[in-house]
């Protein structure tokens, strides 16, 4: 008993020191001006399988898998061993004038999984730089082909594509642009393909027609000769796990092909098993994009790595141009990093040797179990696909209005969940779940049970505080 008490005291002291140091020196992502440079967040000390240990010593199910990325789970010795072995063999080489074996081997493996003729890979350090690379390649290709005005980019409200200047300009979440500059003059945003928020009285099929017709009207108005690319997450992740209407993506892909507009599938979240396949574009949604961006699950978060799969056709067009000396002046110091590529190769082994099949096998139970939460008065909709889902809370089911009186409802639920053993990702009135693919059926049941109790506690709080009238 004394030993446990001393351990608890030690954890508390260490947590206090970490908080104090963070508030003095660490700048967190997405801070508010009132807290920037003086903020401390929940400390995570270690991880094992689907669990993490926080700075208070609590063992929590890692509901978001870090940031949609710890697909193979925490503390995978085989991934840690490869990271160490590759670092001891070759820790780095310059991609400007040399290459390494792991990056070449990974390129071949990825080309074998990618749809259509997406046979080439440009490696980056993450999702933002992957999207930035895809867009810069589109601009370069159109310059070389004598189409310097074909540079506009079409994205969608609710989408998220990154934090670098051009990738962030594509984001469709209003709060991302409230205080940040962007290249807005280069971007056209379409409506969010969220069936839950479709106009009253409109069927899902009619909603799909509306969205496709909207894109067609934009092409006609702006001119196909000015639009270079359309970019879309197959499932909008940070926007609230938005699964588009049936047939939406193939029809948008067809419009792009008809108008010589590059279709970029942003699979930073949906690739590497999140939907049960290495890439989801063809296997889940039946489309063959011109480019696929990826990151996150490619190394299961064990090393920063991202990339762009690019159609061979696009390279052939460039090689046939009259500007053989035109240079794609784009690169990153850590492109094709040997450690990242070696870890990704082992991660692919893990996925192919059973984890993809496991993810497909349990995804039905995952979705069905979470949807049982829709009987709670605070829950408007539970939606998702594969092993990603969102619980959206609403003020009332009749109008489907969000909880405008309490924008921290997601954080309230997350706080209760942490007390009970679950970490979730709160997004204002939504809670996003995307656990490691290694999760089991009993662990899914534990996760849903904790969510239910936490939402019930939050309901009671909102009623007591007069922020919500309840049923």
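-> sequence recovered:
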């Amino acid at each position: 008993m004394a030993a446990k008490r001393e351990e608890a005291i030690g954890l508390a002291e260490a947590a206090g020191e970490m908080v104090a140091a963070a508030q003095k020196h660490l700048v967190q992502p997405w801070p508010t001006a009132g807290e920037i440079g003086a903020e401390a967040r929940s400390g995570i000390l270690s991880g094992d399988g689907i669990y993490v240990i926080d700075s208070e010593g609590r063992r929590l199910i890692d509901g978001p898998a870090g940031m949609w990325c710890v697909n193979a789970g925490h503390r995978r010795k085989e991934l840690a061993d490869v990271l160490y072995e590759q670092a001891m063999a070759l820790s780095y080489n310059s991609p400007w004038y040399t290459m390494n074996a792991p990056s070449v081997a990974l390129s071949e493996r990825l080309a074998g999984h990618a749809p259509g003729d997406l046979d080439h890979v440009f490696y980056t350090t993450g999702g933002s730089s992957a999207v930035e690379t895809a867009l810069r390649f589109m601009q370069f290709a159109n310059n070389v082909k004598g189409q310097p005005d074909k540079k506009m980019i079409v994205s969608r409200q609710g989408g998220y594509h990154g934090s670098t200047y051009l990738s962030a300009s594509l984001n469709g979440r209003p709060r991302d642009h409230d205080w940040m500059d962007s290249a807005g003059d280069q971007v056209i945003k379409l409506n969010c393909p969220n069936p839950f928020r479709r106009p009253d009285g409109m069927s899902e099929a009619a909603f799909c027609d509306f969205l496709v017709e909207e894109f067609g009207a934009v092409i006609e108005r702006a001119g196909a000769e000015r639009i270079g690319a359309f970019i879309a997450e197959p499932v909008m992740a940070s926007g609230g796990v938005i699964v588009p209407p049936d047939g939406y993506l193939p029809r948008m892909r067809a419009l792009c092909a008809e108008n010589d507009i590059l279709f970029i599938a942003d699979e930073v979240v949906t690739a590497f098993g999140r939907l049960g396949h290495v890439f989801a574009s063809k296997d889940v949604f039946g489309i063959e994009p011109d480019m696929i961006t990826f990151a996150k699950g490619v190394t299961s978060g064990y090393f920063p790595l991202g990339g762009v799969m690019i159609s061979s056709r696009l390279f052939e067009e460039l090689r046939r141009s009259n500007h053989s000396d035109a240079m794609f002046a784009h690169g990153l110091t850590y492109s094709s990093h040997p450690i990242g590529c070696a870890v990704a190769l082992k991660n692919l082994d893990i996925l192919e040797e059973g984890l993809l099949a496991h993810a497909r096998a349990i995804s039905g139970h995952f979705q069905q179990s979470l949807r049982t939460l829709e009987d709670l008065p605070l829950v408007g909709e539970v939606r998702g696909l594969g092993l990603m889902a969102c619980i959206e809370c609403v003020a009332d089911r009749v109008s489907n209005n969000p909880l405008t009186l309490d924008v921290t409802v997601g954080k309230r639920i997350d706080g209760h969940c942490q007390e009970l053993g679950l970490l979730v990702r709160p997004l204002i009135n939504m809670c996003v779940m995307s656990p490691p693919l290694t999760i089991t059926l009993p662990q899914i049941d534990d996760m849903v049970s904790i969510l239910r109790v936490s939402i019930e506690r939050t309901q009671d709080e909102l009623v007591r505080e007069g922020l919500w009238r309840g049923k």
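The first strand starts at residue 44 and ends at 48.
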